[in-house]
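Project outcomes to date are best conveyed with an example. Our students and postdoctoral researchers have been running inverse folding experiments weekly, and each run begins with a structure described purely in tokens. The record below, which covers 239 residues, was selected by the lab manager from last quarter's runs and is presented without edits.
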């Protein structure tokens, strides 16, 4: 991780601590024909970090993008990038994505054979190491690794597509994780991804979510700035 990336992450942490939850726009549904322009629009709309969905057509049905697009986004912005790896056998590629300049690399518990080792590899490369969990996976499966991760991303839709309906099972998981965190006096961040809208964002913020991913709610709106401001205001009012 470069020094600049470290500073960008520090700004994200400061924002979280001063103002409460932040919204990370997911680029999945954006206009990839004008990628740099989309990134610039999101940055000038006030996005403090971006969420990039890498899907391999194996772990999830859809095939999205990989290294080349992450590199292009890295060149186009200085805000932190969360790379959400929805791939089989993520251990093969975590080092690559860390070295491409992802500030946060998020890996699925369901896809890992040795979660602790993968998290330690990411940390040793200077990345924040986050664990993602799909709606059908019991939250207790994360317990043995909570001391080794910097954050958890609770999926509130089945990973694979943007624009799906929010699954409230995420609220129970967020509440469980928030309780586990205070019990252990730990400091991992709580994230949520999928189906976030003006109707659902208050619920996840009240349940403890701090890094809130929003795809369609931002990208399908005519005015990214207005959408982000509204979502963040609702999250902060509910947190
Ligand atoms: C789904 C992805 C999400 C997606 C969210 O597999 O992980 O990040 O882009 O899109 P919305 O907010 O539309 O559910
Ligand atoms: Zn995602």
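After processing, the design step wrote out the following sequence:
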């Amino acid at each position: 991780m470069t020094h600049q990336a470290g500073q960008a992450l520090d700004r994200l942490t400061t924002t979280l601590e001063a103002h409460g939850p932040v919204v990370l726009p997911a680029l999945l549904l954006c206009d990839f024909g004008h990628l740099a322009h989309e990134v610039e629009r999101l940055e000038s709309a006030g996005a403090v970090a971006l969420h990039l969905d890498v899907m391999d057509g194996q772990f999830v049905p859809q095939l999205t993008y990989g290294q080349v697009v992450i590199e292009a986004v890295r060149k186009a912005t200085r805000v932190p990038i969360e790379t959400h790896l929805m791939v089989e056998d993520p251990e093969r590629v975590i080092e690559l994505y860390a070295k491409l300049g992802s500030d946060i690399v998020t890996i699925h518990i369901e896809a890992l054979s040795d979660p602790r080792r993968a998290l330690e590899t990411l940390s040793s490369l200077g990345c924040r190491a986050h664990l993602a969990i799909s709606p059908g996976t019991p939250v207790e499966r994360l317990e043995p690794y909570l001391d080794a991760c910097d954050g958890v991303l609770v999926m509130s839709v089945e990973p694979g597509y943007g624009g799906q309906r929010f699954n409230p099972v995420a609220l129970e998981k967020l509440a469980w994780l928030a309780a586990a965190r205070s019990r252990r006096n730990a400091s991992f961040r709580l994230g949520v991804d999928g189906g976030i809208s003006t109707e659902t964002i208050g619920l996840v913020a009240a349940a403890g979510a701090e890094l809130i991913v929003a795809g369609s709610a931002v990208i399908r709106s005519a005015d990214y700035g207005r959408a982000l401001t509204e979502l963040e205001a609702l999250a902060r009012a509910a947190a």
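Residues 26, 51, 53, 84, 193, 213 surround zinc ion (ligand 2) (CB under 6 Å). Residues 3-19 form the longest helix (17 residues). The training component of this project remains on track.
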